[in-house]
From TrEMBL:
Residues 148-191 form the RING-type domain. Residues 6-81 form the CHY-type domain. Keywords: Metal-binding, Zinc, Zinc-finger. One of its GO terms (cellular component) is nucleus. It comes from the Eukaryota. This is Uncharacterized protein. Pfam families: zf-CHY, zf-RING_2. PANTHER family: E3 UBIQUITIN-PROTEIN LIGASE MIEL1-LIKE ISOFORM X1, RING FINGER AND CHY ZINC FINGER DOMAIN-CONTAINING PROTEIN 1. The keyword Metal-binding applies.
């Protein structure tokens, strides 16, 4: 057991603590992990040389303790250490930091973090969501299999936390908070409101109920109310009303 744990948390990169490196089959180069590979190749001068590593294609790893290259396995065939406390044979994934709660989702086809008991797989959205969203979110087909509308990083296998908005679309949590800080309250994809507009609508109803506007303005309000569900965000609707009425 002591040999298995030798060097635990003492090797790795900024992405993972692990006791092995991987040989990328796409370019035959050695990297600490697939993210290190992708970051390096994305900076290549020739755009056609840029590429990403498909994790399931990895067949060879190099033990960081004894420097032995070998087929993918949990334990080093030469020095006998665990090359990762967590190991997924499907994803060819190693990680010594098991406090992350790693688990493999067969439906997603990749490993995720946060503890299996805290997530469920939504078949329509085709991704793992927090159990708090079970029967409590708007389903959008393949909602995670696209790029974050703010930073344009692919969401499905991103290392960053993701937020599911009221409309069902997704984006990085940090990007969402930055958007709110900049007073942008609508989904960048469908323009629906990301916040509860109940109070704002109540104030508008009260103002309309005072009959201080002409019949023509009332008609404009009704038309905009019909359009808002299809083309614009609630806040955008209120801004237009202010321009018309004041």
């Amino acid at each position: 057991m002591e040999r298995l744990d030798f060097g635990k948390m003492g090797y790795g990169c900024k992405h993972y603590r692990r006791r092995c490196k991987i040989r990328a089959p796409c370019c035959n180069e050695v990297f600490e992990c697939r993210h290190c590979h992708n970051e390096a190749t994305s900076m290549l001068r020739k755009i056609f040389d840029r590429h990403e590593l498909i994790r399931q294609d990895v067949t060879q790893v190099i033990c960081s303790v004894c420097d032995t290259e070998q087929p993918v396995a949990h334990v080093c065939t030469n020095c006998g250490v665990n090359m990762g406390e967590y190991f997924c044979e499907v994803c060819k994934f190693y990680d010594d930091d098991i406090d992350k709660g790693q688990f493999h989702c067969d439906d997603c086809g990749i490993c995720r973090v946060g503890g299996r008991e805290n997530f469920f797989h939504c078949n329509k959205c085709d991704s793992c969501y927090s159990v708090s969203l079970r029967n409590n979110h708007s389903c959008v087909e393949d909602s995670m299999r696209h790029h974050c509308p703010i930073c344009y990083e692919f969401l499905f296998d991103s290392l960053k936390d993701t937020t599911v908005m009221k409309c069902g679309h997704t984006m990085h949590t940090e990007c969402y908070h930055e958007m709110i800080k900049r007073d942008k309250y609508c989904c960048p994809i469908c323009s629906r409101s990301t916040l509860d507009m109940t109070k704002a609508w109540k104030r508008m109803d009260e103002e309309v109920g005072l009959n201080i506007y002409s019949p023509r303005v009332h008609l404009i309000i009704e038309l905009l109310a019909c359009l808002v569900n299809f083309f614009m965000d609630d806040f955008c609707f209120i801004r237009i009303l202010k321009l018309l009425l004041f």
